[in-house]
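[09:14] KT: can someone run the structure on this one? pasting the chain below
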Amino acid sequence: MNAIMATAFIIYNTSTDTARLGGLADRSGNQLSE
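[09:31] RB: done, structure tokens below
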């Protein structure tokens, strides 16, 4: 059970980090455009 929870936790963190980086890239791109 701990291994399953750890794997889910890693996947969750990876997906949120990717979304956050994508959001930062979008914001910096918008700032550069303006």
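[09:33] KT: thanks! Helices lie at 2-33.
[09:34] RB: yep, looked fine to me
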